[in-house]
Amino acid sequence: MNAEIISVGTELLLGHTVNTDTTIIARELSALGIDLLFSCTVGDNAERLRAALREALSRSDVVITTGGLGPTGDDLTKETIAEAAGVELVLHEESRQRIETYFKGRYCGENQYKQAMLPKGCTVFPNDAGTAPGCGLETDTGKVVIMLPGPPSEMELMLKRYAVPYLAQREQAVIVSRMVRVFGIGEGAAEEKIRDLTEGANPTAATYAKENEMFVRITAKAATEQEAAALCEPVVREVCVRLGEFVYGVDVESLEEVVVHGLQEKGLHLATAESCTGGLVAKRLTDVPGASEVFEMGAVTYSNDVKSMLLGVPEELFPAYGAVSEPVARAMAEGVRKKAGASLGLGITGLAGPGGGTPEKPVGLVYMALSDGTHTWVRRMDPPGRVKNRTWVRDRAAHYALDMVRRYLAGLPVEGHAV
Amino acid sequence: MNAEIISVGTELLLGHTVNTDTTIIARELSALGIDLLFSCTVGDNAERLRAALREALSRSDVVITTGGLGPTGDDLTKETIAEAAGVELVLHEESRQRIETYFKGRYCGENQYKQAMLPKGCTVFPNDAGTAPGCGLETDTGKVVIMLPGPPSEMELMLKRYAVPYLAQREQAVIVSRMVRVFGIGEGAAEEKIRDLTEGANPTAATYAKENEMFVRITAKAATEQEAAALCEPVVREVCVRLGEFVYGVDVESLEEVVVHGLQEKGLHLATAESCTGGLVAKRLTDVPGASEVFEMGAVTYSNDVKSMLLGVPEELFPAYGAVSEPVARAMAEGVRKKAGASLGLGITGLAGPGGGTPEKPVGLVYMALSDGTHTWVRRMDPPGRVKNRTWVRDRAAHYALDMVRRYLAGLPVEGHAV
């Protein structure tokens, strides 16, 4: 089966909005085993949408549109598709009621109800994050057109809750996806280790690179959810075995989530002292709801004076080793741990650039230390081969620092591989 | 003049990469006054690229491709376009030398030199951030095809340095763009104030929404850079007058950049004490190179104990007013200022959610205070009408807090409007 996507929206062609909808849909189609051969964007223009639709239906089994389902005169997608499919739009009472409820107590223009007019015979997809419902429509030539709203938060929810099951159901199948999150190994190296697993058809396994990390998505299709889950399970396990200690979690959102939940489970508290990352590690920890239970204090100590005053880093370390050094990272971790009365202290000092590098201490060099009161571990992050920017160095250092805590909590060697 | 974009890359159709190239090009075309009617994505497949190209050339004056210029066998864009245009690929000696220099001292496969083969008669665009050059090619029917690399960092640089001037030059024109950055007023309200200015053709003015802020881009086309700049100037000035104190800078990158540079100019130091933003303000300040000159200490004080221990917030404030209150924000700002020996202290306390809200203190309520030792100002940020998530609350609070410092430095009322 193959598919194509038509994104409808003049704002996309003016560059006002990045088209993330297409990426999100592309991933779901890939997981479903449906080939996406083509995607295009047209403005809010019935004639051009009609032309794109005609072409798409001539060559693809499934056509997915995003956008143009709203209340304004610009929103033409349903009208244009219904006309092309030779069906009329009819009022969908349940959708009308949902819109009424949505606006309860606030002004609701008559045009809002235009959104409840849907192609006759379609399968309606409720909009759980907004007002415009979507739908799936089978044409008399056996093709399928799926209409989704444009705003990504509405689109993504509707896609995953209703459109993907609708597509799977047409093949009398249920889809289950699992996510293996990985840090500390490149996408290329990881892919080499699991290449044979990514060649399967059911479940499919695919690697995706994210900034400074990657993930493997395993997706299976079966008659029931249980069967699909059972198909995934051995591949998930095998990916975890092959990627070993680099796997930081399965079906989790982020490294910081794993760290915060790990601290919660063990009843431990963490304190942070950051120089070059400037609060990024604290920010990431507190991105996780509930971080307050395990994270009471973070210090951003940019100057040497503040490192000594706040954390008790011995002043003589600076002339002897420099602020970017193993002894200073160590003293920061130990100092902040004591100051906060926490179980664990994390210290980070390095050169984020662009200025300040020397041949001995180049931009990109970062030391990080983790102390538990008994022992202090230090990791040294060397600059990459090619010069990267300040943001990249800081993001990478924050990742490596959080990964030390993750390793400590998991009982793995804290320093891990040379990084 | 109208244009369309063809993005080439199987990774886009698998959802591995978000297509930001199209958005960036769309903005430049819009600023140039060129209408983008259509954009599409095809995989690394010569046949489908050929079909898309044929269609694009049949209806558009300018066709811009991204991707497929690299060294591998998958990279087919130049070959396919040259064939369609009936020209051959020839070695471009300067590009060959650039590739040689790029790989100096490292292994360089023979296939790298494939990138120096370019359509005969084209205008070559150097790649200042990578290896694959791009080019502009005029077909014998007077259409223009522009080929750009896929990686956004390479594409954007080449587009702005070479492709935009190439397009402008064809109309014997030079383009100048100015950026007015705005915070504290919604895109809708801002647009209403400057609607008449956005209707001009030269210069054009357009509003763009960004997370929690917006910007206005003014672009003029003229025979010389001076003339184009002179056309922009009065519109930039008028936008600044109409949007008044909400304009935080012209041709700057971010609010934090304005704050860091403002502190540098005035020789002032800032210290931060964050509760609900958890280090986000410190992180944003230290995103700016040179922040170390003006920012020595940040504290992330999540628990009441640490607020008292580290910042000297009087313990009796917590039972009397609660941690999320004006007196605590005030004491945090004053306390961190004193502790760090800084000129200015910033304190932030609020409820980021999702849990912890009450009818009196709902999720989204944030107090922030700025102290200069003589006076302390407090802003109260109320939750928006519709519930937003934790990230949104934190980002917005960080914006408002940085905006207080910006206002202080600019001599504006620090508390500004009720927010």
UniProtKB/TrEMBL annotation, chains A, B:
Gene3D superfamilies reported in the protein's UniProt record: 3.30.70.2860, CinA-like (3.90.950.20), MoaB/Mog-like domain (3.40.980.10)
Span of domain MoaB/Mog: 4-170
Top-level taxon in the UniProt lineage: Bacteria
SUPFAM superfamilies tied to this protein: CinA-like, Molybdenum cofactor biosynthesis proteins
Family note: Belongs to the CinA family.
NCBIfam families the record matches: cinA_nterm, molyb_syn, PncC_domain, PRK00549.1
Listed name of the protein: Putative competence-damage inducible protein
